[in-house]
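Moderator note: this is an archived Q&A kept for reference. The question asked for a predicted structure of one protein chain; the sequence and the answer are reproduced below.
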Amino acid sequence: MKGKNLNEVDIENIDEGVRIHGVTATHPLTGKEIPIFVTSYVHGSYGTGAIMGVPFHDERDCAFALANELEIVQVISEAGMMCNCADLSGMEWEAAKV
């Protein structure tokens, strides 16, 4: 997590929870800085900890991204190959998830 001291962040209420402005995370595949949201959106069956949505490939993640004006990037092609994922691009997605 990068950004301001937590006492200096701007917290915006959204329908699904809150968005924390001034603090970002680094996308594990692209290295891009991405926003942080705190929400009850994730289901208990997903486990605990931080969860990263994949809006191009998941209907609920897509709806959340559209509602919050987030970039939507395809990471698995129709042929089942990784794309837009730095070193994983060109790999079959089954092999990449291991």
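Archived answer notes: The beta strands are 2-3, 10-14, 17-26, 33-39.
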